[in-house]
Amino acid sequence: MRRIALLAGTLGALTAGSALHLLGGATAGDVVWAAGTVAALVPALWWVVSALRAGRLGVDAIAVLALGGALAVGEYLAGAVIGVMLAGGRVLEDYALRRARRDLTALYERAPREARRYEEGVPCRIAADEVRRGDRLLVPSGEMVPVDGVVESEGALLDESALSGESLPVEHRKGEGVPSGVVNAGPPFDMRATASAADSAYTGLVRLARETEAGSAPIVRLADRFAAWFVPATLLPAAGAWLISGDAVRAVAVLVVATPCPLLLAAPAAIASGLSRTARQGVVVKGGGALETLGRARTLVLDKTGTLTEGRPQVVDVLAAPGGDPEEVLRLAAAVDQMSSHVLAAAIVRAARTRGLALPAPEDVSEVPGTGASALVRGRRVRVGKAPGSRSSPWEAAQRARAALDGAMTVWVSLDDQVTGVVLLRDAVRGDAGRTLRRMRSAGIDRVVMLTGDRAEVAESVAAVLGVDRVLAEQTPANKVEGVRDEARRATTMMVGDGINDAPALAAADLGVAMGARGTAASVQMADVVLTADRIDRLADAMDVARRTRRIALQSAGAGMALSLAAMAAAAAGALPPTAGAVLQEVIDVAVILNALRALRAARGTRLPLDRPTFDLLRRFEREHAELRPPLELIREVADRLRPDVPGDALADLWRVHAFLTGDLLPHEHDEESRLYPAMAHLLGGPEATVTMSRAHAEIDRLVRRLGRHLDLAADRGPRADQLDDLRACLYGLYAVLTLHFAQEEEAYFSLVSAPSVSNAAD
Known about the structure:
This is ATPase P. The chain is α+β, with helices and mostly antiparallel strands.
């Protein structure tokens, strides 16, 4: 309001003085103009003093000299115009920053404030801050999820658009984690809180957004760098013009056109615009310094689970120690893990609930990052996580060997410090991970490092798929910190993680990035950048924005200063009087601020632009893939069960596989060939981009026809013994080709699908 009042006062003085001059009151008009000049000079002096107190030579000093010089040489009109220009520039700066911060402000203004907690079976309205870990909550239709938790009803349909930009509601099944800050778009559902409001991930986002806003307004580091040479570079030609011509007015004219509003406005407006642009894409960046570091990072260090992988591991087997019961092993593990927010814990709890196991309530729960959790369950100490102790029984060694062969993760379950079983889990690589890493290499990343606490065999299998340069596996939180510091000593390093055990490593990096959609509050709090959407490709989008924002900031400031320098030369030669120079400088100011606001607009960057029809096609086939993937396992299972002694059972299984392939899968593949692939060929620049995918379709067709011929030969008797080897080869071949083909399509095509990817013209 003060700046608006200053603008109104200076503009009023300029208008009133001009009116008095037109009416013949030149002296009175000069007095009014001088008053307007003084009104601008006083706050300008305060800005300079404040900068000096902070140890900076503020470029506002030139504006003060121009205002004082105009008063000294009697150029009252020029002084009044400079006053309006200075006040207008500050108001314009406020507008630009408010416009740029709008998305950040919206993020924390919608923070959850209320919850409905069950008390004696009745949901009661309470403040969100009163929710405690383990509370059972009701989330009515249309209301916001108040804290992080897991779904206890059969399912939940959530609108996550405010965080991720995803326009379609996302379905969460029973036992799956739900983030705070999203809206219930379906019927009411129950959830169990896994964190308090203060420890929920959304609170970390709110805190980061507030810090970002506080750090955005005074971002003038770029201007301060210029100020060190620009102030003396202005004073020298002003003094030279005065000495050579003997006319002090020329010196004032030089100072007037040198008033550095392009520096004061362009850098903060562009950077704040970039911060807003990243927020709109589901990435919150803590201030201009973090945005600049994001744009110049050269080494990328990534956690594996939940970052490079889906973060939704599936339990593939539960093995009990000799004499034990697998069901009891899973029950004990889930009882402890139901209080944990770790992705492996959520998978174990989900598996137990899917099997209908009743979970006892744990007591004295504790969790050690990177090691696991423990609790008292029915009076006995249960530990879930890494195997306790250094000794290994033959049974444990056998399970480790099996997990290594299967590329599975192991979660050991101990009862009173004795290993009672192990849970094997597998986590798929994210479909967008490969494309994202390639995009980030195009954006300037030279080195990619995977840093994980998981076993080397599992980590290396993921790294081989993604082309990672270095793998550091079986790392404790302390080892992760040292690994990040080692990389940071070589180049500017960015670390991406999502768990509690990643928080120290995020702090050790030049730039910490947290997967906030499913990450812990600890990782969010330590991060400089938070991905509010559960998509790592948003990091590549943010890196594009960071590089473009810095380019626009330099471009705006550089162009503005070049124009000012040209005007200074004209003023020093006497070709530009102070009043005309003030008007010209105002035009320059408006031009640079408008150019800086271009950072708000979408641009292509390293992302391929999609038109709406292609986007819709990709979305459709992506959903069909999700539906077709689970039945693929039937093909391998039937191949495993083929035996000569039960031909009737084998025949029924084979017909089930054949019905799935011909009724569901082949129509999908043929539709892709006729509709999706032509669109992708147009997008990617020619049919050669899809020829390998078409070749896979041909091989799938061939194998399905071969299976059909085997069924014709088997007739009603079932497959003959001499058919079994070829049938197994056919089925295993189908399973291998389909699994690879699905993975290729998901990485090459479906990874393009995300909310910001629909084409906008780049500038």
